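Milestone M4 deliverable, item 7.
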Amino acid sequence: MPTPPVRLAIFDCDGTLVDSHANICRAMEAAFAGVRVDPPSRAAIRGIVGLSLVEAVAALAPHAEPAFHTAVAADYKAAFQRMRAEGALEAEPLYDGLVDALDVLADDGWMFGVATGKSDRGLAHVLAHHGLAHRFVTLQTADRHPSKPHPSMIHAALEQADADPHLAVMIGDTSYDMAMARAAGVRAVGVTWGYHDAALLHDAGAHAVIHRYGDLPAAMVWEAAA
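Output delivered:
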């Protein structure tokens, strides 16, 4: 019998798998303080979650020089590492219903990947903490790819999993995820429990938007069949 084609569900991390906004905001505030500049509002910081660090800082301080963006990004990494070493990171809980949704999708034959603006180290820490590392066959991070919405992470995930783009779905909470999915030629499912609202997700090209993880399996059946 021929091997069935691989169906790949690619998840964003921050705002999609885990609620990490408190740590991200604290680290970004510390990074701006490190260069003696008033930090952006937390609403502004939440709006750039999902971008790679330098691009995120550039979005927060668009009139600053590139050297400033690079310096703040480095300070952000240092602040996050310091918080972890001091045991000062707040819990980054999984969103309700995630594990049950993964179980349902796995039983239906889906394979899983991650495409995130986090670093390799940051993603590994999250997945290990929640006992999820074994669930994912491909992990793509900002360490090896251009920032979202560039499609590089999805292209690499598809290649590593030997998946058909027409049977792949990107699941994320930001317009960057939706635009990345569109650029890569895969389906885009937006989730509203993260950092961008439904209107932004739809405007960025989401094929479907869901409001709880319990709705994901049904959305995936529709997307895979579309």
